[in-house]
Amino acid sequence: MRNSRRKSSIGKATRRAILALSAALATAALSPATHAQSAPAAPRILKYTDHEPLGGMRTRFLKDVLFAEIEKETNGRVRIEDHWDGEIADSHGVFEAVSNTGTADIGVIVPEYFAQQMPIGQLFKSFIVGPTGQRQVDLFRQAFREIPAFERELTDHGMQSIFLATGYPVAFYSTAPLANLPGIAGQKWRTASFWHRDFLRNATAQPVSIPWGQPVFDAMKAREIDGLMVNVDSGYMLDVHSVAPNVLASKDLWLGHLYIIAINTKTWNDLPEIDRTAIRRAAETAYARLGPVMDRSYDAMIADLRGAGATVRLLDKGEVAAFARATDYRTAQQRWATEQEAKGIAGVKDALARLTTLVDAAVGD
After folding, report:
1. Which residues pair with 249 in a beta bridge?
2. pLDDT tens digits, residue range 200-222?
3. Who has the most CB within 10 Å: 35, 165, 219, 225?
4. What is the pTM of this model?
5. Distance (Å, rounded) from C-alpha 336 to C-alpha 324?
């Protein structure tokens, strides 16, 4: 999502994570390919579109690791021409750009933005507790392998996934001191997710919808709302902590915000098999690095929030479990699945049951 404050105010932790990531991976990303082949005179250029600016952990990781690995593994036969900050398509236009128009070959698809085209994909955000770091990375991959409905929502629209990028856990940014999560009762809290609006209501808070970006910041500064429930990095990059410096956070608070790096199916099939295999190798290398990078960047953000004067308290597992019970998220999941199947969307309950098994196992390990 785009906003002027976010573009100009990438925080110290994000910059530090970027520098650490670049320093740690530059040598490996640019070293000669293990699977060297004779490079063609003219490489195949694949155009990539992303709605976010280049600068956060996810976007830098894609450029510095995944895209660099693709070029390395294909020995330069395939190169990614990357376009950021909605230059080609915004967060809601990317689906059409990649699937049909040919405006882009590859793009980042966020299921939450495409409820009509990807109804079953909405299930990822329906959990309030889940794994983080490498376990989160592994969970998304397992879900796509074992529950065909998720990938089918892409292939039905002429796309397929080549990489599954993930987001950070939820944090609660409050304008007033907030000792614990039960303290949100009766207060006005902003969230974008329809799932989280249900969760807040069940926890006896009042959910509020405000467009992302400067309007959220202004509403919090004016004390028109009490707080913001959002992934910790989005709040950080919007500088919310300067007007809502009381933060409750936990790596166990699941957001389930999935960033699918999808390629047009015809484009994929037109690539030689040697290059498709090389891209799969590049993805495997990136997957192995993503979890540790996320953990380091998360810790850096928490440290810099505190350094900026925010009061940050990390919730223990018992507090997170109590909040999960208060949200009654499992009842909300079942009710929504029933509603979707009544509309004629087949397989929702089956996908929910199978995904619940995977999430519970990942959390319980």
Report:
1. 171, 314
2. 999 999 999 999 899 999 999 99
3. 165
4. 0.87
5. 17
